[in-house]
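Worked example 3 (structure in, sequence out).
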């Protein structure tokens, strides 16, 4: 029976892993689409602002100084268009919100808040960190409800809180503090971030396994009981 239960556990883990990956990818894609739409809107707004300012300036000049005339339009329109294009192509500089005090959050908020904080910062990460970054995002999505079900003094919750409220922010902040020029000159900087995020992802996997082990085993036992009860031909004996 032990081998049967282990087999059921393995299949259940595989199903949950695929489910987490699909859900996490879908949510990550939706979040990325939202960020892209927001970036486009900001750039269009900047371009429209430049064109509006140019138009107001031209009208003011024509009223206060002298009519612009055809020659002025021939020169001014391309210049205004170039300025608007430059404003649209200029990347927006968003000021990231400060790191929330995750050590003080209730268990139910720890996973969602940590995921939101991490998701806002991942756009600056190097490509080498992408696999570990996505693993962390997927696992935080899945862990949220499980952490919320734990008591404040639960040992697993304390481990998760220490990891998400202290160790992960320290790693990200240490990498961010390195100037971009220094990162470009020293490949070890990005490699260190990717390696550290991989360790965080592994630890989140371990926490996930610890929180789901008992429930998966209970499911396997119940499934095995039903097979024995109704498929073994011994229903009349049980």
């Amino acid at each position: 029976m032990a081998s049967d239960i282990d087999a059921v556990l393995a299949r259940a883990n595989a199903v949950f892993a695929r489910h987490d990956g699909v859900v996490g990818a879908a949510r990550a894609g939706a979040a990325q689409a939202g960020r892209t739409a927001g970036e486009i809107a900001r750039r269009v707004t900047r371009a429209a602002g430049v064109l509006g300012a140019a138009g107001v300036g031209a009208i003011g000049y024509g009223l206060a100084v002298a009519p612009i005339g055809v020659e002025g339009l021939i020169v001014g329109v391309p210049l205004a268009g170039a300025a608007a294009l430059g404003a649209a192509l200029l990347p927006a500089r968003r000021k990231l919100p400060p790191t929330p005090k995750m050590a003080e959050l209730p268990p139910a908020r720890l996973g969602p808040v940590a995921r939101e904080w991490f998701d806002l910062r991942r756009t600056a990460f190097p490509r080498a960190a992408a696999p570990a970054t996505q693993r962390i995002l997927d696992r935080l999505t899945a862990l949220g409800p499980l952490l919320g079900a734990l008591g404040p003094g639960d040992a697993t919750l304390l481990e998760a809180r220490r990891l998400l409220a202290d160790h992960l922010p320290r790693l990200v902040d240490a990498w961010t503090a390195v100037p971009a020029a220094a990162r470009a000159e020293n490949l070890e900087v990005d490699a260190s971030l990717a390696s550290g995020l991989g360790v965080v992802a592994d630890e989140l996997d371990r926490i996930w396994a610890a929180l789901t082990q008992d429930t998966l085993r209970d499911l396997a036992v119940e499934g095995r009981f039903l097979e024995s009860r109704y498929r073994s031909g011994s229903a009349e004996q049980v």
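Notes: The chain has seven helices and no strands. The two ends are 17 Å apart (CA to CA).
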